[in-house]
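Collaborator request, handled under Task 6.
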Amino acid sequence: MIDAISFSGGTFRYLDQRFLPLKEIHVETRDYQEAIEAIKTLAVRGAPLIGASAGYTVVLGINAYQGDKAGFPAYFSNLCAEVNASRPTAVNLFFATRKMQAVYDANYEADSLETLIGKMTAEAHKIYNDEVENCDRIARHGVELIKQDLAEVLKTRKLNVLTHCNTGTLACCGIGTALGVIRLAYQEGLIERVITSESRPLLQGLRLTAWELEHDGIPFASISDSSSAILMQRGMIDFAVTGADRITANGDTANKIGTYAHAISARYHGIPFYIAAPVSTIDITMSEGSQIPIEERNADELRQIFGNQVATPTTPVVNFAFDVTPGTLIRGIITEKEAVTGNYNEGLERVVNG
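Structure tokens returned to the collaborator:
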């Protein structure tokens, strides 16, 4: 298994994904500010991995606290606010800090500071371990839905699947969300080939998903983001599955920029389009996708490629990091509890509160 993040002896260790696949650089830190910067700069990325990393970042912050118990509440509140500000779209980050806040709220009055920090460290490990288990459950539910929806095709041949960005171990702690579904489907003999789109502007699909597939020996081909429509037109894609950074109550889904375009093409060509994501990614406090904050990133991510200038420094740029795919374009939202299809308002509320 690829070691994307780990935490031991008060040290947070992460694989810096900005340098993959050409360099595998593992960074160790005890500095929570450095961990926050890793999340901000996409050295650590992928919604579930960001959530687990946020838990460990809070632990780094509380380990660094040197004051007395009376001063801890204000310090902890500021720490969580700093962590929450690192990435505004990925709801898993806020899910993790809320988990840490809940441990604080339940134990601050009765426990010593040392005991409280121990319980919060245990909670951070639980967030990580839960993500690993969630991936296994998501994969099973996803494979069963694919078998159901594509039963007729599977009678004669294996399937070709499109995925976007990176949703594997590098993003999710365990085997992955969308890529976990693909891995299990391949193990069960359902998949012929994976099509992974490059995922502009940071190329997570080309650099990271391709690297994971090659690592696993799964047949694949990488394409430019805009190529998926012609592959669908030529019968080279049977279904698509991606991850998510936030899912609203009606099934509208924020994911890496380019996802929406794939979903539109899939609908036009009659191809099922799935989302695979843990329940922690679902935000039923938002009724629909226009309420999701969409991060706009630095223009140089487009004007430069790995530090090489490809446009003039004065070229105006619009660089949205995510787009929102309407729930009406999504065949199913696959979670660790169940694969939700049909009425998302009812189904997503059920998996969140059930």
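The cover message to the collaborator said: "Residues 113-149 form the longest helix (37 residues). The mean pLDDT is 95. Please let us know whether this matches your experimental observations."
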